Amino acid sequence: MSTLDEIEEEAKATAEKMVMNMMQRPGQLEKVEQYKKRITHKKASIEAQLKSAVQGKLDGVSVGLKQLQECLDDVTQISLKMDELEDLFKSVPPLVASLQAVREEDSRHSQYVTAMDSLKHIFTVPESVAKTKQWIGEGKLLHAHQCLTDLENSRDDLLYELHRLPNQSSHDKIMLKAYFEDVEMVSNLLEKQIKLILARTLNTVRKEPTVIVTALRIIEREEKKDQMALQQQSQSGFMPPGRPKNWRSKAFEVLECAVAQRIEGTRVDEREDNKLWLIRYLELTRQLILEDLRVVKTLCVPCFPPHYDIVNKYVNMYHTCLSSSLQDLVQNGLEGNEYVTLLSWILNTYPGQELMGSEELNIDVSTLPPLLSEESMQRLQDEYLQKMESNYMEWMEKTLESERAEWGGDRAPDVEPHTNAYHTHAPVIIFQMIDQNLQVTETISKEITFKALVLSIEQVTRYGSMYREGVIQFKNSHFSDRSRVAYFTHHMITIVNNSEQMARLAQQTQTRHWPPAHHDPPAEAKFEAMLATFQKLRDEAAQFLLEEAFLDLEVHFDDLFTPKWLTSSIPVDTICVTLEDYFQDYNHLREKNFEFVINEAQNLVYKKYITAMLSKKMTFKNVEEAQQGANKIVKEANQIRSFFRRIAPEGVNVDWPFEVIKILAEVLRCQDIEMLSLDLHGVLDKCPDVSEEQLGRLLALRGDVPRSHVRDTVAHVLATRQPPRAAPHPSLFRHITFSDRLLSHFAL
């Protein structure tokens, strides 16, 4: 009640508010009646809607109650009927025994009906078998199959009835099967004929596609009968003789066998008959697969049922049979370029535009298993690289033997027309061989090309090591008896040139074949090792070249800084003349090598000159004699510098060693012995690698300097020297050593 009161109060308040809104202006009083009528109509309308809604709900409740009553009556009636059924079921078991005779009579009647239905076929079995054979021979396979089906149905129905008997007679079964044994023979004959047709599918489908369609229709009918037989077996345990025939799976076996025979038929040659047998076999196989799959896509698809998926089936069959054939090839072994031919065909030709990737086929081989397993492919690549390595080793050893034979020959090496340099063809031939191998591997894959490049680098490095051993043996043999080899200098020049050319050709090969932006630290280290091998060999061969020249000059260097040296220019004159004679041959060095030999030669000359100066073979007794010696030293240094300037190409610095000799001469030229420390500081600034012993020996050339002053001056200079700077030029003093210690003799 409180809720209704609240609603009534709220309604009155709302009405009062609405009346106040309507009566705000004096003119609205005239419309009171109009407002009253409008509200009265609205109230009547709402009351009518409310009554209608309430009446609808009441009608629905009434209908629901009536339906519930009807359901209750139905449930009661069903309960009564169920009780009656239960009473009736109690009387059923006694009827089983009384109806046994009826059941037996029904079974006999069913057998008689089956026998009557099959009677026509039973009596005509021999005639039907003969007619079926005739139709098979005439190619009327559908008629033959229909007749065979009738015969099999009659046999199977009779056997099924025997199977149903509670007391089965094995004698009856054997007799019945013996009577129908020709039916099995006819079935096998039809199967054989269908297999023969399917074996020629790719040829027959071009001329008589209806023959293929007929064979496939028969196969599908037999598949359905197989399914029915299996279903019957699951229900009754009876399986007709010869079922399931599985003609569809046998059909695919026949197709696969035919594919294998077609692929095998493309191998028309053997290695003994034709060196290009593998190329021919793979090309014939490519043509065969391309044409056969084109026929399958265009002609077989309309003939075969869609669920056969015949295109993919044929693709898989060709792929599998080809894989088996290639595995046999690999197991039998390959030789020489056969590795390249096979690898290139598998990796490029087979999946490429020439075969599977062609516009006509457009088959993605990535969905298929690999033609050869990864292990087989890796083994092929490894064997190919091993044979390449073996060929490299054999050929490079022969090349080295040929080079060594030329070293002991009685004629000078060949001269390059455009450079006038001595050379042999070995470097060019070696890298031509490498380049040819790499070009061949590029037809296979980038991966194997890189492996072959690394292998080539290793073998060239190995050749460089063997070449170096041979060069050292050649040099030692010559120096043991210099009359044995007439053209030692010429061949050593050739070795220097060849070593530099090997490094240059290696860099060119790397530029051509190294994959762009490819980073492989181990391979890069091997390449650097190869370059270092030939760079070192170039340097060593140049040293051997100069070693021969300086053997002739040794006696003249021994004459330097002796008492007779002050009045004679013969030693240095002879040194320059002898070197000029040797450099007539050195002109056959390539430009870079010639510059290197010049730098090495001048450094060696000045080292030996300084060694002779510091060997204490003489002493300048007074200042005048020391100045005379200093002038002669500067004059001879100028003479040597002029010689090297004359023979050196532009850009080669021959002044620096002269400057070193000149500053050493200034120490001898100094008149005030107290100022010697300044000149020694100049020596240290110019040559930071000069040792205490060498400074002492330099001062010891001056007889006017007391021994104690020599020791003290050297010690003072070394104690007050500035920190050494990085030397911009090669060291002249580091390798100058003496057997005795001069300063130890000066010790107090």
TrEMBL record:
Keywords: Exocytosis, Transport
Database matches in InterPro entries: EXOC3/Sec6, EXOC3/Sec6_C
Domain of life: Eukaryota
Cell membrane is among the record's keywords: no
Entry similarity comment: Belongs to the SEC6 family.
The protein's name in its UniProt record: Exocyst complex component 3
Record organism: Iphiclides podalirius
